[in-house]
Amino acid sequence: MWSEQDEDATPQIWFVDEDGSTPIPIEEARAALEEEEARPANDEDEALKQGRVPIPTQQPKERAVLVGVALRNRPGLLPLEESLRELARLAETAGLEVVGQVTQKLNRPNPSTLVGKGKLEEIKALVEEKKADVVIFDEELTPRHQRELEKFFGEKVRVIDRTVLILDIFAQRAHTKEGALQVELAQLEYRLPRLTRAWSHLERQAGGGSGRAGRGGVGLRGPGEKQLELDRREIRKRIAVLKRELEKVRAHRQRYRGRRRKNRIPVVALVGYTNAGKSTLLNRLSGANVYADDKLFATLDPTTRRVELPGGHVALFTDTVGFIQKLPTTLVAAFRATLEEIAEADLLLHVIDISHPQAPAQAEAVIRTLREIHADHIPILTVLNKIDLLPDPEAAREAVKAYPGAVAISALTGEGIPELLQAVADQLYANYTPVEVLLPYDQGQLLSLFHEFGRIDRIEHRRDGVHIKGRLPGRLLARFAPFLQYQGRHEGRNLPTAAQTPIGEEATTPVSDSAPL
Q1: How much is the pTM?
Q2: pLDDT at 235 (0 to 100)
Q3: Cα–Cα–Cα angle for 206, 124, 115, nearest 5°?
Q4: CA dist 188 to 144, 172, 327, Å?
């Protein structure tokens, strides 16, 4: 409060605090106030004054418990422990903190909850002990599994599977319109039969829950999450729209590939398990600055760069999304436009992280995926990457023996890169057979085929047809046999394709006890 002296004294204004403390001259009070205002603000002090808990500068990570199941009648490519380690890396990539894990071996899955009742109680106890927000199953859950598990764990704990986790990572990585469309389609296709808890998910996402889960999280983000507010009919409409949009993307890519074929520049696609080093290799080959990181699925959208080969030749190298075991089928279907970049290539470089203990199993997963996306007819040159991480040169030599015809490199240090470029040039150009053909004018399909897959040195339109001098890959010679006027010899070697690479039970000579290739 304010007070004044008596009328006879020199007028002086004093400041008296509400607690009745000794009055001080207003000038001193004003100076003290200015000093207080000049002091650097302290958010924590202010929060304590107001009786609030200080707000952390970073929100805490969601806490996850992992569940791995080994089915005896359906063995995975990776051992159970290794598959769970991979799931943990996926969870960390998605921004989760893994606080525990549970495993179970089963003859057959429980039709309602995947695992048995006793194991469920064990998982629930671990969730409560670790204060976990989410339970992640390494196996894909059926809609019935999802429904029953959500009932068991209650509203405060989310239940997701490996598929949702991978889709969530893709949602974080979708930086282009094409990528966002593809991720949204995959999410909606997966979620459509699992809409029973869509509303409770949205309540938590909007802050209706408590704790970390109340802020939304893994499985609830991405371009497709808002569509869960719609009913099944509306979601199907949205899926139809997305498919039409992606067909336009596909058509655009096909036109672009057509222009590339017209320019007769061969295309080399880099394929491999996620984090095998494909982006680092593309940077090394092209001198580009493609984003590369020691993370799973660091690359989502395809990137193409021009690379000079020995002999003055050039080729277009395309970096593609990495593969992984148990790759969601919805993701493969949604990313059709992107994966066609692989199926249309002239050569595949299968990049293998040879330093990884499960390299053979990872390589088999890649071969299986190539078959699934109908890219199993394209020659494959195997590239053993990360030899700089092997203990000694002898280990590198032994690794090459396990993969006949492979080229050992280090994309990080550049070791083996000249040999790799020479091997690519040999395959792309030396493995073509010199030919001369005379195609009648009614053989337009063969003419298009030569333009698409051959190398034309000279073309001449005559009265009796189109005379072409050039080179053809060996696999097409039989198609042109009736019109051949000359056929030379090639000096290249025939590389295997994914269709010719034995996997699983097809393999007669396993490279590794864990997973034959």
Answers
A1: 0.68
A2: 84
A3: 105
A4: 17, 16, 16
> Which CATH architecture does the domain made up of 63-229 adopt?
3-Layer(aba) Sandwich (3.40)
What pLDDT is attached to residue 17? 56
Q: Which position has the token pair 């001193």?
A: 28
Do residues 26 and 13 make contact, with C-beta atoms less than 8 angstroms apart? yes
Report the CATH fold assignment for 265-428+497-506.
Rossmann fold (3.40.50)
Low-confidence ranges of the chain (pLDDT < 50): 1-7, 44, 47-48, 51, 53, 55-57, 197-215, 223-224, 226-227, 507-517
The structure tokens listed for 304 are 């193409």
Domain boundaries, the chain: 2-49, 63-229, 265-428+497-506, 432-487
User: Do 265-428+497-506 and 432-487 agree at the fold level?
Assistant: no
What is the C-alpha to C-alpha distance for residues 51 and 424, in angstroms, rounded to an integer?
Answer: 68
363 class by beta-carbon count within 10 Å (0-12 exposed, 13-18 middle, 19+ buried): buried
Cα 82 to chain centroid, rounded: 19
Give, rounded to a whole angstrom, the gap between the first and last alpha carbons of the chain.
87
CA distance 384 to 365: 16
Fold of 432-487: Alpha-Beta Plaits (3.30.70)
Identify the sign of the CA torsion 380, 418, 339, 511. Answer: positive
Which residues make Cβ contacts (< 8 Å) with residue 117, sequence separation at least 6? none
Please enumerate in sequence order all residues whose Cβ is within 8 A of that of 4, keeping only pairs 6 or more positions apart, or say none: 11, 12, 13, 14
